[in-house]
Amino acid sequence: MIDPAILEPLADDAWPARERKRLGGWRLNASSGYSMRINACWPLAAPDRDVEAAIDAVEAWYAARGLPPRFKLTDGVLAPADLAGQLAARGYREGKDTLVMVGATDGEGDPLVRLSFSADETFETVFTASAGDPEDGRERIEALGRMPPPACFARLDVDGAPAAIGVAALGGGFAGVFGMRTVPAHRRKGLARRVLLTLLSEARRQGVERAWLQVEADNAPAIALYAAEGFQPAYCYRYWSR
Question: Which end of the chain is more exposed for a tag (fewer CB within 10 A), N or C?
Fold first, then answer.
């Protein structure tokens, strides 16, 4: 389907952390400590030093920022193959799987879904409210502001109030779908599907033919929605933390 060694760098660049550092093929990301993707080390290729020394450097880098060290290990990425065992020996344990799905930018857009190329205040309000913790929401809004152009923001209103949102980051020949949120009172009404198809349609209009997204592997309703629109599982990743 797709080599994760190709897609993972695109995913890292599409949702940039506040601070970023490289240790050879290891990408270190740090923000405020909430969203795991931008607060973890992504080992995507060999580090620039011995693996044990690289783990030491990662732990020191996060400690200097008051953050716990965390590693994002991706199926099919050997960086190195025995990294999980070395982390386990240090007291790290793996968390639940996140599934990466890929599909085509097919489907018709919905004229009632509003599109823009930046996140307006209303979009940010829905996005922040869905985070639960205000600091978590603030970190995610800041990440939205760092997304490299072009990015497309979608919002669907019901009775004059925002009900569902989503965003697509375009880059590397793919559209990365992020931030799919539906206000609780409007769930199970097909609004997320309308937002998704509008984002995919806009990506197609801009010449992008393929899309990817990330969804927790136990989120059966979301996976069913994406599968119904032609998305297929590509690979999984999981975070290792102490």
Answer: C
